[in-house]
Amino acid sequence: MEMRAKQYIDIGDDITPPLLPLSFSLHDSFLSSHCSSCFSPLSFPPLPHHHGPLYCSAACSSSHSPISSSSAESFLPLTCPRSSDLRTALRLLLSLPSTCPHLHRFTNGLLTNYLKLTSSPEFAAQIRQGAIAMAAARKLRKGLTLDQSDGVLLEEAVLCLVVTNAVEVQDESGRSLGIALYDPSFSWINHSCSPNACYRFIISPPNATSFGEDCGSALRIVPSVSEENFGVCSCSEYNKGTEGYKYGPKIMVRSIKRIKKGEEVCVSYTDLLQPKAMRQSYLWFNHQFTCSCSRCTVSPSTFVDHALEEILASSPSFSSAGLDLNFYRDEANKKLSHYVDETITEFLSVGDPESCCKKLESVLEGGFHVEQLESEDGKSRLNCKFHPFNHIALNSYMTLASAYRIRSSDFLAFHSKTDESQLKAFEMSRISAGYSLLLAGATHHLFCSESSLIVSAVNFWKQAGESLLTIAGSSVWNLLGLPISELPTVVKYKCSECSLMDTFGAKSILNQAERTNFENISSDFLACVRSASPKFWRFLIHGCHYLETFKDPFDFRWLAHAHCVEEDVDFIKEDSNCEHHAEWYTNARTHIYKVGMHCLVYGVILAHICYGQNSHLTTYVLNYVENFVH
Prior knowledge:
The chain has 22 helices and 14 strands. By secondary structure, the chain is mainly alpha-helical. The strands form six sheets. A three-stranded antiparallel β-sheet has the order 2-6-5, with helices on one face. A three-stranded antiparallel β-sheet has the order 12-14-13, with helices on both faces.
């Protein structure tokens, strides 16, 4: 079961039209704050302890409430685990035919994975208990009770179908609002760790303008299995499952690579910035399959997968003779990973950004020491640190950017707005921007080797651009001797060093000719920001010992000649006598503004490839740039 392109598809093209779901449900935590029909936020305050559906309009209510009330979902126990799966399955049952000839294999044209899931240690109990709860609810709606002799085969099969095919519906901020199940046009698209397509959701209330929705888009993929061989009808015959829903979270698939006619179209089911072992573990636990895509099966590992696990290890006295150095690296990696995961989990649950910053920077800067057994030369220690491309380092940079941003906001909220407190908060904002820029630069380096990382690159460039423009627009420059009225205008819509701003100014982001030239645009962009970053990087990261070990947030070639990242004292102290000169600050601020604008515009170009010209993210960034410039 797979979907293949029925024609050549260029990079950044829609592959499917907007697809309505066959069935869907909000997660419990959003039932009181979002419309159960279209998933849009409700205009009235959340209702505490509310468990039933709420709607944003009469149109949504008339479309959804008859299905909700007929499905028996209101008779489910309030404490039922994964109740969104059960609600989705109960609603889907309403659209099924009275007889299902391929119940154990296919239902509604979708694979149920019934035999695999009901015999799986991870899923068997969950499927059985959920099916019993569904069957009991359906009986209760009729005023009956479930008898032990009653079979739950239908409920098990449909719940297996939901577990196998449903996807998490995310809003613009990345929050998972609920789940939705789509017809084979989407559900037959397989996973790859090096996909050539991605998908986005369209969430909007009735009669609202939907970002990125082009009803004229055609379905440009076809199933590669036949009805004769598998007893599965073609995708077009299953659009009738959407007739019960006039609204709901729609989904669209879009190409992120050039796809040849007949080539399989794949999306990703997991985080592509995780190393192979973690991706495989997630896919098996959540989807019960082992990925055999080209990225997972190539030997030796791809550059990206090697980099995501890279540890920098060094010790002048550590002897590797007769020892497996990888064993010590693995030991250090496990302990470092465990410590970082605990720190990030504590930050997300407790919310202590200062403690989080200290702990993460301590392990990033100091690493972990592995002590070797005594030998003729005495004891020796191996120092292990995360390579900047290591997936744990990338996750730490993302967390630190957020933590420093929160610290800055909290500091101003709890201290009087004296010059000293504003400068202190500005310092935290600087360091936050430094981590955002380092994260974008490191991810871009990986993206150049694995273009399917484009979705991550979009968000990181956007965050870096916003952080830098926030710094450039701060009133604190006044305290440094630079009048706030002297906001630099060197960039505007033109740049003398690259064509990026011309692409933005034309208001036709990535037209056909520019898509062909995308690699050159990307290369010119990186060369431009790389030439500008030395003009402000030292200022941006001043006071953060870990970031001060990086000479450049974009150029990591120097790491190839270092067994361990060492602090370059002369590099850091250079320009220290210039810090109080208005001319130096003006130059630094000008280049922060320039690079920030470039980061955002480059993010727009990448967002256009992933989500389209009028997507929410593309429109948001365009408006941000427009408002900041004017």
